[in-house]
Write a structure and sequence with these properties.
- The chain is α+β, with helices and mostly antiparallel strands.
- It has one domain.
- The protein is built from one helix and four strands.
- A four-stranded antiparallel β-sheet has the order 1-2-3-4.
- Strand 2 and strand 3 form a beta hairpin.
- The longest helix is centred in the last third of the chain and has 15 residues.
- The model has no long low-confidence stretch (mean pLDDT about 85).
Length: about 60
Amino acid sequence: MIWRKSTYSDGGEGDTCVEIAETATHIAIRDSKAPARATVSVSASSFTAFVEGVKRRDR
């Protein structure tokens, strides 16, 4: 899996954020400070709905 961090991650080491990785059907999410620990996996459509909701709230 290829993990990537948000461009909005905290400065410095850039390790105070979550990372995501795309699979064929799901989005995996993990804590960048503890990458060896458990991940959360959600459907791509659920993740998209979550991100859209966050964007609407930020306005």
